[in-house]
Amino acid sequence: MGSVAHIEEHKKELVRDVHRLARFDVKAKQGVDSTLVELKETVLKKSVEAFSQRGDGVLRYQGHLYVPRIDDLREHILSEAHSSRYSIHPSATMMYRDLREIY
Question: How far is C-alpha 86 from the chain's CA centre?
């Protein structure tokens, strides 16, 4: 989900809570898709290296959260991210103002 290094100290816990809620919704949706349930079982047997599963039980693809295509979850997450005032690259630690508002 990105770094919280740029956020004021007293707001970091709130941001972490939002990240946890996002993972919780994704985790719930991953349990609905029968294909993903089978893939999780395969990952636990260490047969697939591109996918991993951490202690929280959420399936990840090459270290990134895997969001299933169920109930428009991907579209909801993307629309929420794109309507934000800031654009954040997942592997970056810097934030940039959306240039559309400036120009």
Answer: 17
Pairing of strands 59-61, 64-65: antiparallel
Q: Where in the sequence is the domain holding 23, given as residue range(s)?
A: 9-102
Which structure tokens are listed for 43?
């990952």
Q: Tell me if 4 is assigned to some domain.
A: no
* Alpha helix stretches (DSSP H) within the chain: 12-30, 34-44, 73-82, 99-102
- Residue 23 in contact with residue 58, Cβ under 8 Å? yes
pLDDT in tens, 68-83: 777 777 787 777 666 6
CB contact burial 36-50 (16+ within 10 A = b; e otherwise): beebbeebeeeeeee
Residue 64 counted as domain residue: yes
pTM: 0.49
Domains contained in the chain, number:
1
**Token code pair at residue 75:** 């579209």
